[in-house]
Design a protein that fits this description.
Chains A, B, C, D, E, F: Belongs to the transferase hexapeptide repeat family. Chains A, B, C, D, E, F: InterPro entries: Hexapep, Hexapep_transf_CS, QdtA_cupin_dom, RmlC-like_jellyroll, RmlC_Cupin_sf, Trans_hexapeptide_repeat, Trimer_LpxA-like_sf. Chains A, B, C, D, E, F: This is WxcM-like domain-containing protein. Six copies of one chain form a homohexamer. Chain A is built from one helix and 35 strands. Chain A has about 325 residues and is mainly beta. Chain A folds into two domains: about 150 residues, UDP N-Acetylglucosamine Acyltransferase, domain 1, CATH 2.160.10; about 150 residues, Sandwich (Jelly Rolls), CATH 2.60.120. In chain A, a hairpin with a 4-residue loop joins strand 21 and strand 22. The longest helix of chain A is centred in the last third of the chain and has 7 residues. Chains in contact: A-B, A-D, A-E, B-C, B-D, B-F, C-D, C-F, D-E, E-F. The interface between A and E is medium-sized, with 18 and 21 residues.
């Protein structure tokens, strides 16, 4: 039935394949349609009723489950799984710019919808039925309509000890997987006039701050941070409410929920940091070792890995 | 009727004066009772039915209105006015320690009640019917049952311009009466991910911080601060809610309500500072130029005035 | 000076004692007045300017501090302390029944006020400046204005271990005492899109409105209104929250709490109207039969009574 | 493969077309199935794997993207776009009445689900993944599960000036695109007793009200209004909270957010009005120039356009 | 086109059927794919483009609408309807255990997504676009992303009379369909000190309680109960907030919303009970006639029907 | 003693009267002082220790209770009652304008304070201890510090018809001083479906309940309980919020704050119990061993002590 016959590719008798660029060991299911110009790697499985648009590029060992629709421009990296009936929308009109991209190892569930032009980061997870309207960072798990980040894959969550009611010194905080980062217990003084937490250079702060900033009024579903610094140290204290912080040095990962003005978190340079799950009343104080310098920021995870001499994932 | 006759003192024929230590020009009203040992200065007016306990010391030009009761140990400085039927309680029992004190120029209203052993600061104002259960700082105005601080006398309140909805740079903030202190507009960045305010050394911060502290969960009627530093600079930002700050260099005074993360307040050394009227959700960030040193604090207003070479008031 | 001389009692030369029933070891201060018939136990101290009414009964070892007034009928048991300028009120009128009583060991602070007929339980504590309007149970500590229970004396506090609406037509509203005013049930329509109340001329509104106004953000303890109109009709609807309205035609009076958008209140001319007890969220809509005319307002109650041909009260 | 061959229609060799009623220039994709009786206009594109039920009527220049399912009874007007894998449900059972309808120019996203029997208005937009359970008005943009209105297409939003803190007269409000409608600044009086806004005939109100109604307790996702009046004028004031109002005279459109009791909006007859995005605390007062008359309402947008002598869109 | 031809089954010429286990009277639509090993009962309708995995078992009279995907292991009982483009996910990886199951008479809407391994109870309803991540109990209606219970099918909701403000006795409550259960009006006493509701044995309580429990802090979308007792009586009172209770004796069903401390509900043994739609502040008091005995609980609905001698549904 | 003798006026021998303008039938008490120029009407009673300033005008049948101070300028109309130790302040300084005024029939309580220049309306009531800082309207009843309107005298109120955190076993609780009472730890089970606490006879409950009641909506300053039972046992659990309970067997006392559904309190007969400090959301469940019997209650503490064979305190 298909006009093209490829010796190392299994093409179902009821499939319609119009592109010759399909890698060895791949398989095209019944009623599937691969349009002219599509480029598919080795050991890829295209399910029944699936549709692969021309100009779509698919890596190796990718699974495209039945009924899924992949519209160009779209690049799917290696080892990705795309669930049944999931749709990658194409551009809204003829002149629309952009290109959708799915990073290596990402998993997309069933019946998901991905708006055109988005980037799904490596090892990210899009859950069943999610309607994705914004870029998904590496490792992030997203869910819902519209989709928002509900967690990070491959990231152990560290449970901090509950601060006792009495205002005495907190026990030594736990050690992090990311070895250069450190949790620092801060003194808290409570009297009839309210509560006060503080930190001093040397004792608590490993650097002299040249800059401070305060983050607040963050919608609960928003993510802040998602970058690393080349040289700048940061010290985070969540004065009110709570916020979850993900740390990643390219090898080890941690997630810790800051929910006490008695706990500081020192993030040294060359550690990828993410802040999310802000409570409605969260106020996050950040002290920084340097004044603002745009070129101190590494904003792409792959650049961060490269800067650390690690392979992209 | 009185067993003692003092030539330069007007003693009403129906008064009962048992102390000879009364200054010239003073006047004792009908049915008033001055007990043995009381010491009263010049030009003092003791109203009808008033009672002055032995060992009470009263300065000059003091008015004690009818029916007021002054129980020892109590020291009343010059130029104080004490309202009708107001009571300074004596000690609760025979062994109770302490001494009540009223600073120069203070004004106490009618029917007020002052618990034993309290200190009413110079130029403070206790309003009618107030039930005073704690020390009243200099210049403070207190009211209610129990009394709390509702304002500061002789202190102009500075109205800050309303921050516009758009997140652009604030207009130059107003100049303060206390010439060494300064309001500093801070940049604020608002995007879909929430709000962020920041400050940097040089541009906004006139010193390099060695310490930070965060004040929160302050009951609305409480006062914090009420001290000056000998050498330490402070920089205040009210990240959430609002707080009123009173500044005093011994000559000029200011009150300003901080209610925006876009406004910093630099308090240099040798300026008396008071923080009060915290809103329930207030979070105040303070950056300090020095690590903690107990002897950098001047905690008594009279010591502060002395250190500035100014006469006590 | 006192007509009575008791050998075992110290009576100050300026005291006025008219009762012979005073126990041995007691002491009466200067300008104090003990009325005929008062019965005072042994070792009692009556301070200067104090007043003890006839028929008052005082036990033993009681201290009555200067300026205190004890009005009959009153029974004070043993070992009570009554603070300076504190008043036990007598009955409000000649026929008022009841008797005030202070239980043994109770302590009353300075400048306190105790309404007639109350019972202060044994060992109770009335704090300085408290205005006591209800019985005080045994051991209770009361404070404030009005006084309320803040704790129990002699009672160890045990610390527990820490662990963690058919929107059909309303029935006919009641008839008011102020005969010319009228409550009007308004239709309300509720559907999935929210609630809607309405009124039309003829059916609900007895006049054609020429003006509307909306009242909101009223502090709960504030009063609005307090006037009558000569010619203008008003129609009030409390759309949100609640407000109490007082009506007065000079003879009859009503108070009604409006708390539903389904209830309108027609206030005709020549009815004195008061609005008070606004809930924090109250929104009051007023429709008026005339445009604003300053001389249509009668703002003084006496003028209102005169205008109605009624004597001032 | 298809039993029917139509000269001016491109039918893919793997498509299954069982209806002859397909207009010239149309195109049927691979694995698509058009059932007997379906009627399809000119220049229509039916994507791969799509299913068009018998008795479905499709206008001209319509795009039906791959995998979409259109179940009868359903009428799709001209220039509509229906996204991939989107489903128009059929009736729940054999006897179910009704017909689904999509107005001209509407855009339906990917993976959307539309319950049977709904009407999607002309130029409306259903976003990706939306689950539509109620009619969508003309121009409305809907999103979510269940879907609700998030905006209106082709409607410029007018930013009102921020009301200053001081209670002086507001600057002249901006002019609307809908020329017969008018924004009216209202005086506001604030004193210690709260706030009061008012309006009078002549000065602020261009008509004499015969009826008032108050709208409140509106769920934030609900829409009210969506009609025009033939003769009745309306005057809207949002006393508390905020509400967005869309105006449309058939040629020009406006959206304005009313959020101040100091701003009235006069909507004259023959202007289509929509109210939505009520804040939880919103209270909207409406004064109307006429008593209620059911036949004064135009409740269908196409009737409104016809009444204005304009072509349907 | 299909390799298998079955005399009593209608297989569309464009369908692909690889399993011989299909019951008489069934129908397989165009472009549908039934994999080897699938077992399909009689009178089943498999729509166009549908996909039935090998090892899937389907009962009789089941409708699988076009584009639906049924992945093994999965058992679909008789009389089920599965909507268009709906996906039953397969296991996430090769070693994943479990089996999805859909009970008899269940209805699944369009574009729904069902995570692998879930059980959908008999006669349950999954609404359009629902993303089902947890088991769905018998009769339950679920909706949303993620899906939660919004009601129960075949269950009449009983409207209770509104409790009047005055604290007099409530009118006799309505009679329930489940004849052995009973609503009981409780007296309520309100005074200045708050509100009090009570019940007594004989008058209100039909048994002597041996155990009580209190349910609170229930997330609004959670369901509690879902069981029957063999011998234990229960008496429910919702002291604060509201909760909906579903009763089922295997023949008749009731749903009643308890929202008043004045209404008790007696649930006798051998009645299936469900509690859901707790308001955030709901506090439910339950009195039980017996102490806790694990074997008194019937936790599976089919066991309950069997114990009552009724056929499974 | 007084320099002026007026034939129709009773002047106490210890009074000091310096004004001749006193009406017939009036009476001046001991130690009272009427200054030159005061004008007093007929049948006026000036109490002991009272002070009437010169230029004060008092009407007829006025009562000025002992210790009251009336400072000029002040006009007191007929039939006014002014309570003991109440003070009308004079002007704050020599140039202050204004005049205080008390309308006919007004009643001022004891120890009240009235700021200078205010008008107290006819028949108004100023309650004991009130600190009046604003005009008081006719008929208004004011109370508090500062005083506010709490009602209107002579005004019937019309009642409108109703319109529409590890959940393991707790450690053994502490032993109480009141030996017969007992705290009982209750198990609590928390899962994703919310929280559940329970108690059983024998294990937790020392009696079989015949009655239950639930207390809620208690104003925070109110006290419930304050009684003992002759025969009835009670078991208290605070399901939501918190409440403090005081226990007293006539010899020993305890106070315990119940704030967890995991803690029950058994109060046996013949223990005096008090409940106070209810949090706004408190829900207290009480199980009782007997049905209601009015004569089982001992409502007076002295009766309770007598019933226990103990002397009154």
């Amino acid at each position: 039935m298909s006009p093209i016959d490829l010796p190392d590719v299994f093409i179902h008798s009821h499939a319609l394949v119009e592109s010759p660029f399909i890698g060895a060991g791949s398989r095209i299911g019944a009623f599937a349609h691969v349009l002219p110009g599509a480029r598919i790697g080795q050991d890829v499985d295209i399910g029944d009723h699936a549709l692969v648009d021309g100009q779509v590029q698919i890596g190796q060992r990718v699974q495209v489950r039945p009924g899924a629709q992949l519209w160009a421009p779209l690049v799917v990296e290696d080892d990705v799984r795309i669930g049944p009936n999931t749709v990658f929308s194409g551009p809204a009109g003829p002149g629309a710019a952009g290109c959708s991209k799915v990073g290596a190892g990402a998993v997309i569930g069933a019946n998901a919808t991905l708006r055109f032009g988005l980037s799904i980061g490596p090892r990210a997870q899009v859950q069943d039925g999610a309607v994705v309207t914004r870029d998904v960072p590496p490792h992030a798990i997203v869910s819902g309509n519209p989709a928002h980040i509900v967690g990070y894959a491959d990231t152990p969550h560290l449970d901090l000890p509950v601060a006792p009611r009495a205002a005495s010194q907190l026990a030594a905080p736990p050690v992090l997987n990311v070895a250069t980062a450190r949790l620092v217990a801060l003194p808290k003084i409570v009297d009839l006039r309210g509560a006060l937490s503080f930190g001093e250079i040397g004792t608590h702060l490993p650097f002299t701050p040249q800059r401070f900033f305060m983050v607040y009024d963050v919608p609960s579903k928003e993510v802040r941070g998602e970058h690393a610094h080349k040289a700048c140290h940061q010290f985070l204290v969540c004065v009110k409410g709570s916020v979850s912080v993900v740390l990643d040095d390219g090898r080890a990962r941690d997630e810790v929920t800051l929910d006490s003005a008695r706990m500081g978190l020192h993030i040294p340079p060359m550690v990828w940091g993410i802040q999310y799950q802000f409570s409605p009343d969260a106020v996050l104080l950040v002290l920084a070792s340097d004044t603002y310098a745009a070129d101190d920021y590494i904003r792409k995870y792959e650049d961060f890995l490269a800067a650390r001499g690690l392979p992209g994932r």
